Amino acid sequence: MSIDEKTIIQRVRHPFRARHVQLLAREPVSPGFVRLTLGDPELHDFTSAGFDDHVKLILPQAGLEKPRLPALVDGRPHIEGPRPVMRDYTPLRFDPAGHTLRVDFALHGAGPAADWARNAPIGQWAGLAGPRGSMLLPDDLQWHWLLGDETAVPAIERRLAELPAGTRAVVRVQLTDQADRRAWRSAADLDLQWVDSLADAADALEIPAGPGFIWAAGENRAMALLRKQLLAKPGADPRRMRIASYWKRGEAGHHEELGAGG
């Protein structure tokens, strides 16, 4: 895909799939994160092509060992009976040989999904739906900005693992607890800062020359303001950025794209 096209983002759609998976392992990563390994042979055809893909974790409805899974009805996912707890997460690492998927949970206080991530017994069943689609970027981009709060950490970690040598990655992450810092490495030339204010950190950046891409994710209002801030910078191009709202203060299960490809 040429970087001279109107938009550099390529969208790929995936067939709808919902599966049952078991919790196989739990690994504390830092005070604010836990890493879960989910697995089952049903994952044999799992596909996640983009670093910021999201899958929907479905917790069992009350009284059920396994959750009821969604099926497409008139092109839309539908679940029979009471609506289960569902949350979006980034697929961090998939092992096709072992049919396992690693997912990092940012533990935002109390809540059914965070409580499940902390306390669900090994072997408990859950559901996994998606991803429905992926965002793909050209391989020949010269620079990448990756900005976000705790909820963006898994996508940023995955992206840094994928970037090739010869590219530059500017990463700014706003953390509530500095103990959640990670010792990231990348084949790309990495400029990483853990910051107290994402807005202040973005204000200090200048958009470089050459083809690149700006990606950011975090709380809804903060991301809306960040998008305006970034678009006001010299050289900004809305077709070369994606800003996503991964959560919204006071609202459960929120996920929204605030700008991509114009």
The largest beta-sheet arranges its strands as 7-4-10-2-3-9-8
Q: Topology as H/E string? A: EEEEEEEEEHEEEHEEHEHEE
The count of β-strands is: 17
Percent strand equals 35-45%
Gyration radius, rounded: 18 Å
Distance between the first and last residues' Cα: 18 Å
Residue-averaged pLDDT: 92
As residue ranges, the low-confidence spans are 1-5
Counted by DSSP, the helix tally is 4
Largest sheet: 7 strands, antiparallel
User: Helix content range of the residues, please?
Assistant: 10-25%
Description:
Helices cover 14% and strands 38% of the residues. The protein is globular and about 55 Å long. Mean pLDDT is 92; it is low at 1-5. The chain has helices at residues 112-119, 153-162, 198-203, 220-231; strands at residues 10-13, 18-30, 33-39, 55-58, 71-73, 76-78, 86-89, 91-95, 100-106, 125-129, 133-136, 143-148, 168-174, 189-195, 212-219, 241-247, 256-260. It has 262 residues and is mainly beta.
Write the layout of secondary structure elements.
Elements: E1 10-13, E2 18-30, E3 33-39, E4 55-58, E5 71-73, E6 76-78, E7 86-89, E8 91-95, E9 100-106, H1 112-119, E10 125-129, E11 133-136, E12 143-148, H2 153-162, E13 168-174, E14 189-195, H3 198-203, E15 212-219, H4 220-231, E16 241-247, E17 256-260
Parallel strand pairs: 12-13, 12-15, 13-14, 15-16
Antiparallel strand pairs: 1-11, 2-3, 2-10, 3-9, 4-7, 4-10, 5-6, 8-9, 16-17
